[in-house]
Write a structure and sequence with these properties.
alpha/beta; eight-stranded mixed sheet; five-stranded mixed sheet
């Protein structure tokens, strides 16, 4: 029996659906008759009901859902899905969308679980794949747009040495850099050859550019700059780097003051996250330590595995983050299976009380002693 999808129809009325092209993923989602389509629509409908119930619906949320960009849609829906899951394992009205006077914002909320306990601040982030070619293309598009806003009478040879982890580098910083560096060049000298600019680095994303000017025939009435050549020899990144980038972005959203903070990362079919990826990103990369003594008669200890201090969890930084959770879904004919695993931060200033999740079907990695972590259910 087909269930009511009132919330889905509220967000996507028939006239809106009719206006979509058949190639639009929203058209396929809302009209598709493929196996399991109705289960996915019902799952989304339940999350949209939560948004309506908590009065989260505003022009921004509607625009994110209707924009037609799959990543933007998935990010918004994952925020609602995580909230729905947490409400489901605790109780209705356990969610609060106005933490510390902040404006309501989907993707960050507080969990109010037990009277007298500090509320848990929750930030939800979706990790998307950034294959090298697509990421480089998006960066090039932004470089072209920003460069056109800085006037100079020659072309630029921009070499992408490293793409970093995201195309969301600072446009203002890049334009300011170009304006300052190009102001140092004698345009008459540059017209006869090339001139090397300082290298450009964006500390937030890891973008690294080598830039030089190129002499080009002047165009009539030309006043604005243009890019003559953009080359690339960027290297690909491991999954842990994408995860740490998402964690850095989430960390910036954590509130000031003392309270437990939980960041929930959402995986996707396009970018599955496994346990090893998250352990490497959070606790550090695994390495093998060998021992060698100059005293040949001494007993040499066996080699041992340890984690390097290159993870997001660190004794001297990122200690405001109490724990990281991984939210995932699995399709079944009976419905959508949802799961959360929690990786506690052994260095957190305000620890997340893991007993809150006892008997909730949540697997948790907790501190066993000063050297070890252990899984509990």
């Amino acid at each position: 029996m087909k269930q009511s999808l009132q919330a889905l129809e509220h967000f996507f009325p028939p006239d809106f659906v009719a206006s979509l092209s058949e190639e639009n993923f929203l058209h396929k989602l809302l009209n598709g008759q493929y196996s399991g389509a109705e289960i996915w629509r019902q799952h989304i409908n339940e999350c949209l009901e939560l948004a309506l119930r908590y009065r989260l619906v505003d022009a921004d949320l509607e625009a994110r859902l209707k924009k037609g960009d799959r990543e933007v849609f998935d990010a918004a829906m994952n925020e609602l899905k995580c909230a729905k899951f947490l409400e489901g394992i605790f109780e209705v009205d356990s969610l609060h969308w106005h933490p510390q006077g902040r404006e309501k914002k989907v993707g960050e909320f507080e969990l109010l679980l037990r009277k007298g306990d500090k509320p848990i601040f929750v930030e939800v982030k979706t990790v998307f794949p950034r294959d090298l070619e697509r990421l480089e293309r998006r960066i090039i598009d932004k470089l072209c747009r920003y460069t056109e806003q800085v006037p100079f009478p020659f072309a630029l040879d921009v070499h992408i040495k490293e793409t970093g982890t995201s195309e969301n580098f600072s446009g203002r910083k890049f334009k300011g850099f170009l304006t300052e560096e190009l102001g140092k060049i004698n345009t008459e000298d540059a017209a006869g050859g090339s001139s090397k600019l300082a290298d450009y680095r964006d500390d937030n994303t890891g973008l690294y550019l080598e830039i030089a000017t190129i002499s080009v025939p002047p165009k009539p009435r030309q006043k604005m700059a243009y890019l003559g050549i953009i080359g690339g020899e960027a290297r690909s990144l491991e999954n842990k780097e994408y995860l740490k980038h998402s964690l850095r972005r989430a960390y910036e959203q954590l509130p000031e003051g003392k309270q437990p903070c939980l960041v929930v990362l959402c995986s996707s079919t396009a970018f599955p996250i496994d346990e090893d990826d998250l352990l490497n990103a959070l606790l550090g990369t695994l390495a093998l330590r060998f021992y060698q003594f100059t005293d040949r008669t001494a007993k040499v200890p066996e080699p041992e595995w340890f984690r390097k201090l290159d993870g997001f969890y660190h004794p001297r930084r990122n200690r405001k983050l109490s724990a990281t959770a991984l939210y995932s879904e699995k399709f079944a004919e009976s419905g959508i299976g949802k799961n959360i695993e929690i990786y506690h931060n052994p260095f957190a200033l305000d620890s997340l009380n893991y007993s809150l999740f006892n008997d909730k079907g949540v697997r948790q990695l907790v501190k066993k002693n000063d050297k070890e972590m252990e899984w509990i259910s």
